[in-house]
Amino acid sequence: MKNKLRIQGLLTTLAALLVLLSGCQTKQANSSTVATYSGGQVTQASLYKELKQSPTTKTVLANLLIYRALDHAYGKSVSTKAVNTTYDSYQKQYGENFTSFLTQNGFSKASFRQSIRTNLLSEVALKKLKKVTNSQLKEAWKTYQPKVTVQHILTSDEATAKQVISDLAAGKDFTTLAKTYSIDTATKDNGGKTSFEATSKSFDSTFKDAAYKLKNGDYTQSPVKVTNGYEVIKMVNHPAKGSFESNKEALTANVYAKWSRNSSVMQRVISQVLKDQHVTIKDKDLSDALDSYKQSVAKD
Question: Which residues form the signal peptide (predicted)?
Answer without folding.
Answer: 1-29
